[in-house]
Here is the input.
Amino acid sequence: MLDKKIAILNNLLFQIKQCIPHKDKSNPIVSKANVGWQLDHTLKIINRVCESLEQSNPKYYKKDFNAIRSILFLFCYIPRDRVKAPKVVIPPDLISTIDLQAQLNDAKKHLNNIELLDKNAHFKHFIFGMLPKIKTLRFLEIHTKHHLKIVNDILSK
Here is the structure.
């Protein structure tokens, strides 16, 4: 199961890499933010969340029930324009190709490290609550697909 989740995320990282040359494209009908913003934000989330997993202490993980999480994770869906991104994962005004590639390389390294982490390594999300490693990977999958869908909508319209 873990290998499958990591493979899915690696595939999504490949898709992000394919979109980097289009970083300056935008479509205000789809999103106020351009492709570069979507990619940078997504990579920041992956890297920050993985760092949080790596730094967590598994003995402090507590299982909790979260109805919103259960529904959104079931449907692999995050609604658009409902939540404002925390400051720490908001991209800078100028997004360079070099920075996107560096963040992409960091994300790949983090994904390789996740397999070695305890199953109770965790990340606390401000809406979804405490997520153990496997649910954190599911969150990263859903979040990354959400932003790649926005990128694809920008590029196709």
Summary: Residues 133-156 form the longest helix (24 residues). The chain has one domain: 2-18+36-156. The helical segments are 2-19, 35-55, 67-75, 97-114, 133-156.
